[in-house]
Amino acid sequence: MTSALYLIAIALTIISWLIPFVMLFIVPANRKPSSATAWLLLIFALPWLGLIVFLLIGSPKLSARRRALQREINSYITQFIAEARADPRARMLLAPPVAQRYQPFVNLSSALGALPALADNGVEILTDYDDILARIAADIDGARRFVHVQFYILIADEATEACFQAMERAVARGIAVRVLYDPVGSRKYPPYRATLRRMQAAGISAYPMLPLYRLDDVNRPDLRNHRKIVVIDGEVAYTGSFNLIDRRYHRRDAIQYDELMARVCGPAADALDAVFRADWFSETGERLSQSDDPALAITFTPGGTSLCQVLPSGSGFERENNLRLFVDLIHASRHKLVICNPYFVPDEALMMAVVSSALRGVDVTIYNSEAQDQFLVAYAQRSYYEELLRAGVKIRLYRAPTLLHTKTISIDDDIAVIGSSNMDMRSFELNLEVTLLCYDPNVVADLRQAEASYHARSRSIELDSWLQRPLHNRLFENLTRLMSALL
User: Are 188 and 282 found together in one domain?
Assistant: First the structure.
């Protein structure tokens, strides 16, 4: 027995030595150097634990089945748009004249996400939490054909009651109401199971996104669908940072959230609906097409004068769609760049784009928050402040206890980016996100008003005072930065 245990111990020791060596050939393949380095550090320090964790969550992509579905969906969208452009009535909406400045971004977004730039949209910027809920409920009450709702967190509580009642009234009128929710994002809130029972009782068709229990489609448990979309009749849509839950997220501390949503009228609402329909097909296998249900006909109804484009992104795509777009836009900024994001943990390319913009004279401002709800991310993002401040980037912290959850970028005076994406590797590589691009000075002017209110409720970080922070804070910031590729 003793000799057998001795041989087992020797074998385990040898395997422990071999694991890092073998993983040197596996981990760096098709992986960013920063991510590969973080994984190898873990594996060299703790071979067995590192190997197990890598096998569980080492792949940043959805299953081969889901990626094949996304390619099929992209091909279908491309074919549909090509056929629709043959209709003279839709041609100006689907193939509008595009200013030379915008053409590279339009081409990039189309190549990455398959959706074209669309003309004749109306875009309204909403920042009041209660007003967002009231507007969504009112638009659902006006639905004539269908209601599509998709949120990372979807909870029926006192704040969201009007929205759920509006969905129930829509079902009672014979309107199809379809809901997608993320079970991991929503499950931790106490009303979760009551919410599911209520939707089922009302006749609302509700499905979880990326459920953990599907044996025929196994994915990393932390690959989540983070999109926020509401579409009514394909004519009105909402997207942005907002989750369907009380502003305090049922927290026990004092933190509450300020959000920003775009209300879109026009063909871009159909584009957001295309993202919803793609996710619905991925989760249910049901194609939402007008051949099956005339109520689902795509109308491309004009709603304003803005040129808009929708870009889906996430681990179902082969490329990091949102990261590539953000880097391209930031490099193109000429005089003003404003980034609002609660979780700013950039990769090297994004960090270089922001720093380079400031160094060449662009007025760059980043809005972050004093309050933080993710401990490790909070410290990791602070490790970037010094380099940003030295380059001339202005950093402003939204005053606690409110956390600024807005996810927007404004470039110069004519490009606005509104969406669900954080600026960290989780949103760039793992989570499914959606971004609305608006190539319109009027939308940027409205977004500037929101930014002005953020300025009034925030304080500036100065380099001299930042350098005086305690040594232990710096140490922990640097340690969490090493793990930023894994956060």
Answer: yes
